[in-house]
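Q: For a teaching handout, I want to show students what a protein-ligand complex looks like in token form. Below are the inputs, and the small molecule is NAP. Please produce the holo structure.
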Amino acid sequence: MKPALRRLLPSPATAITVSEAYDVQRRPRVDRPWIGLCMVASLDGSVSVDGTSGGLGNANDLEVLLTLRELADIVLVGAGTARGEGYGPPRTPGKRIGVVTNSGGVDLETDLFASGSGFLIAPRTADIDETRVQVIRAGDDRVDLAAGVARLHEVCASVQYVQAEGGPRLNGALLTADLIDELDLTWSPRLVGGYGPRLTTGAAETDRSFELAHLLADDDGFVFSRWVRRAC
Ligand SMILES: NC(=O)c1ccc[n+]([C@@H]2O[C@H](COP(=O)([O-])OP(=O)(O)OC[C@H]3O[C@@H](n4cnc5c(N)ncnc54)[C@H](OP(=O)(O)O)[C@@H]3O)[C@@H](O)[C@H]2O)c1
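A: Here is the structure, written as tokens, with NAP included.
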């Protein structure tokens, strides 16, 4: 059974579902799709334990990820996370998952690609067999994320909402390019130590400001926050 969820902010509510909390109107953008980043972190800021995020989450956290995935038109993930977490096809037929890679070293034999839901975002120089997978080419020898995002309509004509699911290096590149409109961050109630990465890695030092849209907590002590980029 999932631990009971309550809303602390903006208005306290004792019984709330993940769907009620996250299926909300998102500010439409005209220049590009809205991009939300969904992550779970320990209290000491690590996003992995033993090399994966699985040990940090709980049932409500998984439901947040899957609910946001349902709401999104496209999911984006870094190649490191796709490889390390064994990304498979999404539950909803037709939903596309884009794997961001510089090298093109992505296993096309996995179910993600065999199902037709996987596609790649890669630079022009990456050696990829395009008869086996759809590729958005953006950038010369490194992915130009802004250019890649601008071409997502090639895989989903009506793309308005993109869910990014990490990992930290992809997040760092999204942050540098100012491509994060929403952060859905779960705090796992544990200190894990170690050398796991933080939410973003490799981003240029920057200062992007966000507003707290909601704060939820469950009976396991998990805290669920939703942050929206402050309008400039
Ligand atoms: N807690 C969470 O919510 C959460 C979520 C996701 C991941 N994680 C954890 O994060 C760790 C993986 O972190 P990571 O930083 O190595 O993963 P990552 O960002 O998923 O992957 C890094 C790889 O993705 C490609 N890539 C990422 N950003 C790119 C960009 N801007 N342009 C082109 N290619 C890009 C490159 O692939 P190529 O090598 O193919 O060029 C790069 O080597 C794992 O431990 C995972 O469990 C945690």
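A: Two things your students might notice: The domain at 31-73+160-232 is CATH 3.40.430.10 (Dihydrofolate Reductase, subunit A). The helical segments are 18-22, 59-71, 79-84, 111-114, 145-150, 168-176.
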